[in-house]
Amino acid sequence: MGTILTIATSKGGAGKSTLAQCLSANLAQLGYAVTVIDADANATLSDWHANVYEGAPFRCLAECREVEVIDAAQAEAEAGDIVVIDTAGFANLTAASAISVADFILVPCMPDRSSTREAIRTARKIESLGKAARRALPYRVIGTQWRTGGLVESATLDALKAEGLPVMRYALPHLSAFRKASFTGNLPVSGRLGVEADRLIGELTEIGAIPAARVGSAA
Amino acid sequence: MALKAKKISGAELVSQISKATADLPATTPKPAQAVAEPAEPVEQQRGRGRPPKPQREKLEQVNFRCSREFCSLLLDASRDVGMRQFIATLAKKAGYDVPEFDLQPTAKSRVL
Q: Record's InterPro entries (chain A) (predicted)?
């Protein structure tokens, strides 16, 4: 059975869909059988996948109902290697379901105060959902639109660490390539973006969020 | 990672976590309510009376292709100071006349 990776934060525009796009395209390029479930009613990611995306193929479903998203994730995980669930940018029932069914949760956080605040709130929600579901829900906060070494980034890290939140070593860099890809559909899997994505996937594999071996058939 | 939980259906899991989700709305939001118009126009006298901004140095964009390993090396080596300052410092050490503007880009630096 594959791994279910949920991307969630109650902050809108924090980079959830961008992170889902980047991870899915790069994992598909590496040969993983990837399914993305777009659980956001805005359907940004599924629309991009259907109409714009050019790259290694991966499956993409749109499902924003709180019960059905769980069943869809479990069914997709039976057949593939990784199911990535992209949630809506506000605290909602479907995001709670997607968190509860996940093997690992990534909480994107931009370097600003409101993103940090929402990342902390989301982390607390994950912990309470873990208690309700009676199982550990491992998660990490991941920086998005990140400029390593920046003052605001340092302040963000300080605030997250002060709350005891686990933070990924690598972040999603602040690159115009992501915005370009929203129109061209061509997410670079080489160059700086490719190297950064490799590092991110390496870290996720290291901490067990992504299986090291591909168990499913090619997508 | 913890052992995976026994597989349960979506309906069962939603029911199980219902205490923790009692305060949450559904994903599909209600239609937005009309927002009252502000009493006064938002347009303010922004920027009026301020001194003119200083002229910025004209900058050029430099791109180049290299191996993945060298790209990784450059990212690591320039992580603290930034790619521009890193290359400027190397050029200076090699004896080139490097503009101070590129050696010390403090005006826009976000580095601690």
A: DNA_Partitioning_ATPase (IPR050678), P-loop_NTPase (IPR027417), VirC1 (IPR009744)
- Beta strand A3-7 with A104-109: parallel, antiparallel or unpaired? parallel
Distance from CA of B7 to the nearest CA of A (A): 8
- pLDDT, tens digit, 9 for 90 and up, residues A21-46: 999 999 999 999 999 999 998 898 99
Model confidence, pTM: 0.73
Any domain includes A211: no
Task: Kindly indicate whether the ipTM for this predicted assembly is greater than 0.90, answering yes or no.
Answer: no
Which residues does chain B have within 8 Å of residue A191's beta carbon, measured at their own beta carbons? 65, 71
| Residue B10 burial (10 A CB sphere; 0-12, 13-18, 19+) | buried
> Does residue A214 fall inside a structural domain?
no
Contact B10, A71 (CB under 8 A): yes
The answer to whether residue B66 neighbours chain A at the CB level (below 8 Å) is no
Report the C-alpha gap between A105 and A122 in whole angstroms. Answer: 10
Question: Phi first, then psi: what are they for A7, rounded to 5°?
Answer: -110, 115
pLDDT in tens, A107-151: 999 999 999 999 999 999 999 999 998 899 999 999 999 988 888
Q: Which domain holds residue A99?
A: 3-206
Instruction: Please tell me the total count of domains within chain A.
Output: 1
